[in-house]
Amino acid sequence: MFGHSKHHEYEDDTVASGLGWVSIMLGVGGIAAAKPIAKLIGVENATAEGIIRVVGVRELCHGIDILSHRDPTPGVWARVAGDVLDGVLLGIAAKKTTNPAGFATAAAMVAPVVIADMVDAPKLSAQKMMA
Amino acid sequence: MTLLDRMRGDTASDSFETRDIADGESALAQSQPSRAQQGQQPQQNVSQAERTVSLAAGSILAVLGLSRKSLPGLLVAGVGGSLVYRGVTGHCSMYESLGIDTAEDERQRQGEQSEEEQARRGIHVENAFLINRSPEDLYAYWRNFENLPKIMTHLEEVRVIDDRRSHWAARLPRVAGGQRLEWDAEITRDDPNSLIAWQSVQGSDVETSGRIRFAPAMGDRGTEVHVFMEYVPPGGMLTAMLAPLLSKGSKRMIREDLRNFKRIMEVGEIPTIIGQPHGTCTGQGERYTEGRW
Amino acid sequence: MKALIWCAPYKVKVENVPEPKILNGRDAIVRMTSTCICGSDLHLVDGFVPFMKPGDVLGHEPMGIVEDVGPDVDTSKVKVGDRVVVPFPIACGTCFFCRRQLYSCCENTNPKSYLGEEAFGFATAGVFGYSHLTGGYAGGQAEMLRVPFADVNCQVMPTDLTDHQVVFLSDIFPTGYMAVQHCDPKPDDTVAVWGCGPVGQFAIRSAKLLNAGKVIAIDNGKTVPERLRMAREGGAITIDNSRESVYDRLLDLTGGIGPDICVDAVGMEAHGSNILEHAYDKIKTNLMMESDRPAAVRQTIECCRKGGTVSIAGVYGGLADKIPLGALMNKGLTVKTGQCHVHRYVPELLDHVRSGRIDPSFVVTHRIPLSEAPHGYHLFREKKDGCIKVVLDPAA
């Protein structure tokens, strides 16, 4: 199910499956380590932990979706939608954070993934149209 | 003394001010049953913010999963669906079995302020305008409620029944459903050339109350008009969550209505461009210049 | 009828559109006899002004003959058959601002005031053919025009003056005039005008009409020598900013003190005085991090004498970077600005024209048929063929 051989038709599949694995990691982290993550970002309350858990569940589902289907395109676009949601949440957290340094670290770690999503999704769509 | 100060009730003789929103006792709140009296509901253990995020994330997953039409897709859609469910109801069985409750803090805060929370469920808008006419002229126009549909675009018809009661009909904008709402309102306070206050009658489709004040402005500027309105939109919880957004749209709508009032009274007509000439081109003209710099 | 339509940034087209109708009681319909292309139209077509929709009719310098009036128009002020010039801001005549002669700030003529309020805090008056920020009114580069509040906005003109002598009372002549007049020029004042486009040309000649002491005009002699020449014909001493330092030359001409009144008649599409400044502004505007290129304003603030007045006539739309606020404050400058309150000036300017003190037709370099308007825009923008002002003939 996770082998590369199935995805040969789509070129940017390596990036996509990379994103799939990253999603799984982020998902598991978000669910299991909600409290430490909340502490790092600087919003330590039950509501924030709950939200991080929900985001974790979402990420995990993205991972499952991308890795278990031949065509990762809708999955990556769904990640983009999720990134938008995350962006809004981070924006709100930015104002409330008690730990700006930690917040910046977390944001910096997430940024490359977001960029990868936004670059990859249109590429995948373009390839689909040309195929 | 600003316009708002005056409106907030620094005039001691004004007994209406005791029902001012600032005290947390709005006219509407007094007619609502308190939360404790509402029927039994499953314990809400998810905080408000988390519910919104759950709803959003769940929607993304549900759409994605269903679009896949596969077994893993069904799984994803299922997770999405349960996220949506917990967002809407505020109850998460996982949380229950794990003993987690993220709505605890909120409930504490709410218990202390249930009345204010009631008040906040409604939508409150306030707007002020300077109109170059005397308070008498403005009062006379507004007091005849049958004039109001001319300036308020969302009102379809107002019929005056007697000295205090009138029947109103409005149409919701198409984005909110487009249906026609009707209600009866009665005047609760009428100070000629100064203040009109009204409230919808119990049991109406829409609960609304409002007041309009006319105060002479300085110099030759005319009259300062101040409108305060509140209403509880039909629709229940979902619209309550969208209340901040609806509030912005309502504020603008009332502001534009007041602007229409100003224009009718100052120049006799409302400017419009509907019906004017315009082209059909959709972006395909010729470039008129080579350079961009 | 034919009309010039905005299609997309850099794309305009002449199309057949329905004729205007009376929509409100105080409207009038005017058949155009001459209508012009303005420098601020270029800002619209270049995409600097938001809220344009494909299909919008452009044009805000119209004049013509009144064909029809609505039932509530005061016919003692304007009636069918009158020859009128229509100022570009639409005024109601009775609001707080109109009563104080701030006609371009009228509160009652913009049907989309909420857009202006979001952009500027308060909405300005409706303007013909200038995007939905000013109401989205159909403009005057067409065969016919609907004019709201006709008894206020149709300025009746005498029949013994030609079109080219009065059509500029709609916009550029009062704009240049107000830029100097509201700074209260004295006979010993030096007025420096940045930008020798049509508005700058009128600012120069207005300064002369208002008996200012000395007039200096600044522009780029390499790209627009004909404009500097026209400025000299108007009585100005010219500075070619492609060959000399404007600041040094101004000090030279004013005995080291700097000009008393500095007029910015350039606006938001200024070319910077050096390549770095131009690149900075150009990049920032293209990235939408800055909406205007304020190079001219920067220079006027730098060069103005202490305690002098900077007059901003050029059009700006949004937010600009790196304005020398320190220089502004410490030098004690006064800034006078505003979209021209045209209605205020029409009577006295008409008097200047009738008495022969000025003939505004000097600024016209091209008169072309409305059907060739896109070519007119091209000439005007590229400054080709010695183009300084283009007048369109709607009948041809």
Structure commentary:
Chain A has helices spanning 13-32, 34-41, 46-68, 73-96, 100-130. Chain A is elongated. The relative contact order of chain A is 0.18. Residues 1-11 of chain A have low confidence and may be disordered. Chain A is mainly α. With 293 residues, chain B is α+β, with helices and mostly antiparallel strands. Helix content of chain B is 40%, strand content 21%. Chain B is built from 11 helices and 8 strands. Chain B has a 7-stranded antiparallel sheet with strand order 1-7-6-5-4-3-2. In chain B, helix 3 packs antiparallel against helix 4. Chain C has 396 residues and is α/β, with parallel strands linked by helices. Chain C is built from 14 helices and 18 strands. In chain C, helix 8 (225-233) links the parallel strand 12 (214-219) and strand 13. In chain C, helix 6 packs across helix 7 (198-209) and helix 6 (172-181) crosses helix 13 (342-354). The radius of gyration of chain C is 20 Å and the shape is globular. The mean pLDDT of chain C is 91. The chains are: A mainly alpha (131), B alpha+beta (293), C alpha/beta (396). Chains in contact: A-B, B-C. Chains B and C meet through helix 11 and strand 8 of B and strand 1, strand 2, strand 4 and helix 14 of C. Strand 8 (286-287) of chain B pairs antiparallel with strand 2 of chain C.
How are the elements arranged and paired?
The complex is a heterotrimer of chains A (about 130), B (about 290) and C (about 400).
Chain A: H1 13-32, H2 34-41, H3 46-68, H4 73-96, H5 100-130
Chain B: H1 3-7, H2 27-31, H3 48-68, H4 71-89, H5 93-98, H6 104-112, H7 114-121, E1 123-131, H8 135-143, H9 148-151, E2 155-160, E3 165-171, E4 180-191, E5 195-200, E6 207-216, E7 223-232, H10 237-241, H11 243-267, E8 286-287
Helix pairs in contact in B: 3-4
Chain C: E1 2-8, E2 11-16, E3 28-36, H1 39-45, E4 56-57, E5 62-69, E6 83-85, E7 89-90, H2 96-99, H3 113-120, E8 126-127, E9 144-147, H4 150-153, E10 155-156, H5 163-166, H6 172-181, E11 190-194, H7 198-209, E12 214-219, H8 225-233, E13 237-240, H9 246-253, E14 261-264, H10 275-286, H11 295-303, E15 309-312, H12 325-330, E16 334-337, H13 342-354, E17 366-369, H14 373-382, E18 390-393
Parallel strand pairs in C: 11-12, 11-14, 12-13, 14-15, 15-16, 17-18
Antiparallel strand pairs in C: 1-2, 1-4, 3-5, 3-9, 3-18, 5-6, 6-10, 7-8
Helix pairs in contact in C: 6-7, 6-13
